[in-house]
Structures are given as C-alpha cells and as structure tokens.
Amino acid sequence: MGLQWGLTPVEYHDAGHASILALALSPAGELVLLKAWPDRGRCDREITALRLWSAVPATRVLEFDRERSVAALSLIGGRPGGGQRSGDDEGRIAEVIQAAHDQGRAMEEHREFPELSSYLDEVVRPRVVQRLDALNPETPRPLLQAGLRELESLKQTRHHRTVLHGDLYQENTACDEQGRPHLLDPLPMYGDAVFDWAFWIVYYRLGQGTDERLALAAQTSGIGEGRLRSWCLATCLDGLLYYLEVGDTRAPMMARVMRILLRRAEVAW
Fold this sequence. Notes:
- The chain is 46% helix and 16% strand.
- By secondary structure, the protein is an alpha+beta fold.
- It has helices spanning 40-52, 89-106, 116-134, 142-153, 194-203, 210-221, 225-246, 251-268, and strands at residues 8-15, 20-25, 31-36, 61-65, 70-74, 161-164, 173-175, 181-183, 189-192.
- The strands form three sheets. It has a five-stranded antiparallel sheet, covered by helices on one side. The protein has a two-stranded antiparallel ribbon with strand order 6-9.
- It has two domains: 3-74, Phosphorylase Kinase, domain 1, CATH 3.30.200; 89-268, Aminoglycoside phosphotransferase (APH), C-terminal lobe (Aminoglycoside 3'-phosphotransferase, Chain: A, domain 2), CATH 3.90.1200.10.
- The model has no long low-confidence stretch (mean pLDDT 92).
C-alpha cells in the first residue's frame, strides 16, 4: 500500500469499521498517513470533500488511487492525533468550520454528496421513533418529548446550504505545530450549515463548554441562537437514545446537556 508512490510503510496505526490507517515515509523522509477504505463510496466522498477544502485548513490529499480506495494524506502536526491544542482552540476551529462552509457554499450544488434532508428523513427520524418505542416504559419522558418536538419541526434554509463535514467530534480535527486546527475524516453531506454547528456544539467536548460553543457558533456563523438550540436538542435526542439503547455511561451527561439547552431557551424567552 503506497509503494507505487515511492512511500515506505513504517507503522500500522489503526483499523476501524470505516478505514485502515498506517504511517509511511516519503522519499523526502517526511511522515505521511496512508488510508484505505473498504467502502468505495465513502472513500470517494471523503476525498472529494478534502479536495474541495484545499483553501482551508484540512488534511491534504497527496496521492489517490480510486481503484484501490487508498490515499496518501498529509499528517497534521507530524503525528497521529496532531499537535498540542492551543488555549483558544474552540475559537480557532469555529473559524475553520466557517471557512469550510464558505468554500462549499461558493460552489454549485454537489450531487455526489448525500442530502441532509434524506439523512434526517430516512435515517435519523425513523431510528428515533424505533428507539423511543423500545424504551422501558418507566424511562422519564419529558426530556425526550422536548427533543422530539424539535426534531419534528426542523427546517433548513436555502441560503445556508453548503458541503457539511458531518462528523465534528474533536478527534476529527487535529492541530499543526502552531496549534492551528485542521479538519479530518469528514462524512460529507449537502445541506444547512446549522447541522454541523449543532453537532459541534454538542459533541466537540460533550458536557463541557456547551453554552460557550453555542454563543461562539452563533457569532461565527450568523445563525440565531434559538435556531442553533433547536438543532442541538434534536442532535442530543438522537445521541441520548443511542446511549440508552446500548447502556453507554454517557447517557446522563447527554441528558444534562439537553437540560442546559432547555434552561437557556427559557431564559431567552
């Protein structure tokens, strides 16, 4: 893997359900990341998004073999996971997210990416209903019902449509030697930018700094806090039901995030 580009694999790194990662040395002696995908469609979409974001901080596609679904990518910060994060990491990553959205919005619609509306209607809403039906009858319902109301009422705005990262966990960003964050490992879709912001607010550091990220996202994106909050609550509901289903210890933390968001809404009203 990578030998056709003059790369020498030096270290196996990780294998998950979506990809296999290894480190390799370039002829110039620089470490790069080799990535292989079992799903060619996912591979194509990720590479297309990373190439689209060539003008914003994101991992670079150095080489790509579509037939084998293998790519050589730049290694941010010189090691897997990147370098040390700066004290203003969240402000800096908010700027990167906005830059990526601006880049995606400036292009014509990308039909190679799934539509956010299809993902919500065909994946998220059905699984939420299924998981709600399967819950223990004694499970407290008011919080879940509040999230369900928001999920059912979500609306997209056309002027915010762009290419979405779709998976903005902290581990899907990495910092270079100067502490500047870069985007990694997208699950790109095409739709309203509010989805990415809500995901980032909830999951970037689950249970920590939620209010601060909400205010930062509103300031950076120009999307109103009330609209962001609605999408956050819908995002939380989907995550909470999954945690409850599998017995994940993060379920109480997600419920606490929902309560924080609901309290903030009451203050705004």
